[in-house]
Design a protein that fits this description.
The chain has helices at 11-16, 38-49, 82-89, 99-110, 112-135, 159-167, 193-208; strands at residues 59-63, 76-80, 139-140, 147-151, 173-174, 186-189. By secondary structure, it is α+β, with helices and mostly antiparallel strands. The chain has two domains: 31-110, Type I PLP-dependent aspartate aminotransferase-like (Major domain) (Aspartate Aminotransferase, domain 2, 3-Layer(aba) Sandwich), CATH 3.40.640.10; 123-208, Aspartate Aminotransferase, domain 1, CATH 3.90.1150.
Length: 211
Amino acid sequence: MNLPQHGSNPQYVYQEMGIEKPDQIMDLSANINPLGPPKHLEQNWMSFFQKINDYKNLVILRSMTKMFAIPGLRLGYMMAHPSVVEEISVYQSHWNVNALAMTAGELCLQDESFVHRTVQYIKKERTRLFAFFDKESFVYSPSKVNFYLLKEPKKDYMGELFAYLLKKGIVPRHTCNFPGIEGKWLRFAIKSIEENNQLMEALKEWKQQLP
């Protein structure tokens, strides 16, 4: 089990959801370095994918929408043991991916240099944002990917901050329908330098107007 926006299997996430952390969870991604060179990254992920032959209860789901900025295509894929794929395919709709989306997806997967550049950019901007959050005393999830959770520690519900940011032209994802953290956090993505600067400026203004 892995929650990328929090890091791998964080104890506090389980606590907030009111459940005990399972005793038997195998972290299969521990040896994967997502910041390595493209060839090394490919070898790491391939060794990870090969574990589906060892664990029939392992299903790997990968969305392509965030990495390649193609949310309109709703594209992704699943990898699992052949017996699992065969069983799940029974429930798959006949026209689940159109030809244009499939072509776009194939081209995206071939561009390894883009993936590497994007990962490096996300890491740099994430570090910059998190340093700002620390300085301004915001609480955030120690994310390892390109989205994260954020909250104002003086507030139990983030509705006011959500409305404030909307007025500033910033649209975070509310968590009102997220089981266990209903409205206590807002979810953001790592965006362009200009958009990240806009977010930091708005959050700083929000802090200044708090009593």
